[in-house]
Amino acid sequence: MTKQEEIREGIAEELAKIPKGYIGITDPEWHERRLVKARVQARAVIDYLHSQGVVIKIEKELPLPKWEEVESTALGVDFDTWAKMIAMLGATLERLTKAGYVGTEPLIGEKE
């Protein structure tokens, strides 16, 4: 189950909870209908949150670029310049992380 699906299902479960005062409802079909309706409502909530720019924070480090991605930049640059560029990149990534910049995923996945 993706993070997006977990969030949607969690919202549906919260919406499907029986409010106080509903005593004695034991019909399993009633509960199933309530959950189905809650899933539809959860989808509407997710769509709204997505339209407002809500994203999921992902916990992983920013990757360093692969050699193939920077080879054309590196060609013709002496070693000292290249070493300085790498040091600057590392320092920049560290500052971004300390400043709270994080990776994100859309609240609604590409498949949806």
Question: How would you describe the overall organization of this protein?
Answer:
The protein is built from four helices and two strands; from the N terminus they run ααβααβ. The chain has helices at about 5-15, 30-50, 65-75, 80-100; strands at about 55-60, 105. Strands 1-2 form a two-stranded antiparallel ribbon. Helix 1 crosses helix 2 (about 30-50). The longest helix is centred in the middle third of the chain and has 24 residues, at about 30-50. The relative contact order is 0.16. The model has no long low-confidence stretch (mean pLDDT about 80).
Number of individual domains: 2
Figure out the total of helices.
4
Q: List how many beta strands DSSP finds.
A: 2
In whole angstroms, how far apart are the ends? Answer: 14 Å
What structural class do the secondary elements suggest? mainly alpha
C-alpha geometry? rod-shaped
Mean pLDDT: 80
Please state roughly what percent of the residues sit in beta strands, choosing from under 5%, 5-15%, 15-25%, 25-35%, 35-45% or over 45%.
Answer: 5-15%
Strands across the major sheet, in which order? Answer: 1-2
Q: Report the helical percentage.
A: 55-70%
Looking at how many chains there are and whether they match, the oligomeric state comes to single chain
CA radius of gyration is 24 Å
Biggest pleated sheet = 2 strands, antiparallel
Q: Order of helices and strands, N to C?
A: HHEHHE
Low confidence ranges? none
Please provide a brief summary of the model:
The chain is mostly helical and 112 residues long.
